[in-house]
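Quick one before lunch.
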Amino acid sequence: MTRVVVTIDGPAGAGKSSVAKLLARRLGYRLLDTGAIYRAVALTAQRTGVAWTDGAACGAIARELAITFDFVGDKNHVYLAGDDVTSAIRTPEISQGASQVSAHPEVRAGLLDLQRRLGMGGGVVVEGRDTGTVVFPAAEAKFFLTASEEQRAQRRVDELAAAGKPVDYDVTFREIRERDQRDATRDVAPMIPAEDAVIVDSSAQTLDQVVDSLAAQVLARAGRQ
Ligand code: DC
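Model of the 2'-deoxycytidine-5'-monophosphate complex:
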């Protein structure tokens, strides 16, 4: 069966990472977390004293980003020039930073080739905001995963608590709303469903139900290639 490109876009906390990871495992596909790449740019900027508002300097960081991924168990480890930044890129501060740097055209352009190279050859589940619209417009299976704002905020709170970094629900709710607003209204590659994406609302479904449904749809499409 043809190994296709699957894209999963959508707002923060919709469950993209969990769904993408399980779907990739189910299909025997690779996983490409494009949000981790934007997070890595924000972290590098912070560590080198570059402001997240400086598009030119953040663009230069994006073009030279030495990022690698490695699966250990079911954890997707992220390395920057060999340094394990898996936890460092997951803080609420870096979430906002990633959203800010991702609005710069120089950053988006600087990361395009990298993302396409990492997804080359198919057999990959790609997750992000513009993976079905801009990065892989010809992807065979596109999904836009969403859920209610309240559920998305609660999920983020639970995730960070499980990682030993408890955060306040109200603060998280506001941060998620602010980030989605910025991601959806920026001029370049805003977060919008691709015309041919299937919209999936995960509010009333379990993780397994979502993964089952997506896997069936991907296999149906791959069978038709
Ligand atoms: O999926 P995430 O929360 O790890 O993404 C962090 C930020 O990166 C998100 O707020 C916007 C940006 N991003 C993007 O602009 N395009 C992508 N394909 C993925 C992420």
